[in-house]
Each structure stands twice: as structure tokens, then as C-alpha cells.
């Protein structure tokens, strides 16, 4: 995760984030050794460490320091804030289970004491809806795009996204890492049109949000659903926006699309997978590249870092601020 996003994700001050990155390489060390390495008295070291302990990403047990790596730290943070998301998910589940039985004509439907403005559409209707929403509304556009560059409708969706950006509206989209290899030209074109692009190892499902009260999601979460649920209720769209924001914080930003930047972000994603203990086969699937390519890149990376083991590579990468 890029440094400018990690602190924001966990609500850390710049000072605490710098301390976290300095102390991360001391995971497993005794407190006295970690403090000495940072040229601090033990008492001050423990004071500096306390915000991380309060956050749940570090602790001291029997004098031994534990510091979680960035991705696990974000996971702990999200776990602590999961209750509100669970409640939001329940509302979405109730809405989805209700609207899938509706006729494909717009209607206001009551679920218990809640009234929803929703419908189920299929075929070309989702693309037409997006074009209409972009033309009629003035809100931000948020997109989860796990595979849409393969669809015949891609050019129409790209045009709609470009129109929204041209109007000065913010357009954000999250793609899976494999899009770097399968659809790099699409990413470059989207970026050139004003779309903000970020990457995750995997994007769980398609989703489109326009403004505060319009969203389009698959009838069943996934990539290839023919039928889609259209939501026009701000109360239901709100948790979808929160879900998108959480994914956005975790995603890797690609501010400039040139070969150097792509290599840097590919390296960061590879290190992130290695830090999570992923096997080479899993890394290959996640990054959308061949197993031999993964092993060749890891070997090159270890040579560049001057490391003899993957553990040493991880420590040196953290020291250099690569992860």
C-alpha cells in the first residue's frame, strides 16, 4: 500500500506513521534492542509505540515487540470497524433479496417498514442507464471494474466516463491487477480521459454508483451476471459508497502511466503478496502472470535488494520504504 494512503487508512498522524515504518523492521526484537536501534530511551520508545498498541497493530509481550505488516494492520482496523459495515450489509441483502423478484419496471417496493425504489434490468439496459445517469446527474462516479474491458459495451462506458470527467466531476474506478497485463491500453485511455485509477489484487464484483442515490449492482455478486439490480434510494446507496471508499483506501494508486510507474507498482504488489506469505502459484493467479514470471521477478527483486532469503528481502524492502 502506498505510504500516502496507509496513514490515511488507519487515521495515523504523519509522525505516528513514520514511527510505525521505522519500527516495523524490529518485529520480533526485544524492546531494548528496538529502542536502541532508533536511538531512544526505552521509556520514550514505549510512549511512541502506544498509539500503535491502542490501534491493535503492535504489542509487547514478555519484552518482545510485535508489529503487524501494513496489510494485516489495515485488516485489524477494518475488523474493529466491521460492525457498522455488517449492519449495512444486512440492509443491502434485504434489498437485493426483495428486488430480484420485481418486474423489470421501476417501482417503489416495501420491505418490512422500509420503502425501496429499485428494479431488476438485463441485457443492454445497464449501459443505457449509466449513460442516462451521467447525462442527468451531477454527482461523483464510482466504479468497480473486475472485467468490463472485455465487454462489447466498453466503448460506450468509456465515453460516458469521459463525459463525466469533462464536466469536472470526479470519476474513480478500481481494477484488478491483471488489468495491467490484459488491458493496459484501456487503463491508459481511461486515465487520459480524467478517470482516477487504482488497483487491487482482486475486485470482487461489478458495481457502479452515480451521485448519492443511484447504484447498479449484479443480482448476485460476481462478474458475469446478466441481470442487475438498480437502486435509486440514498439510504441503500450510502453503504455501497462506504464499501467503495474502504476498497479505495486499500487499492494501489497509479497516478502516471509510464513504464517506470507500472514497474514500481507491480513491484509493490509483488512485495505485498510475499509479505502475506502467498505461494508462488497464488501470486501468479493474483497478478495475472505466469508462474515462471513470478519466480523470475522474485529472484530479480532479491538480487536488487541484496537479500539471500525472502524474509531478508521483506526486511530490506520495508527499510527502503517500498512497502
TrEMBL record:
Gene3D superfamilies: Winged helix-like DNA-binding domain superfamily/Winged helix DNA-binding domain (1.10.10.10). Signal peptide: none annotated. Residues 268-317 form the HTH luxR-type domain. SUPFAM superfamilies: C-terminal effector domain of the bipartite response regulators. GO terms for molecular function: DNA binding. GO terms for biological process: regulation of DNA-templated transcription. Keywords: DNA-binding. SMART domains: HTH_LUXR. The keyword Magnesium does not apply. InterPro entries: Sig_transdc_resp-reg_C-effctor, TrmB-like, Tscrpt_reg_LuxR_C, WH-like_DNA-bd_sf. It comes from the Bacteria. The keyword Ribonucleoprotein does not apply. PANTHER family: HTH-TYPE TRANSCRIPTIONAL REGULATOR TRMBL2. This is DNA-binding response regulator.
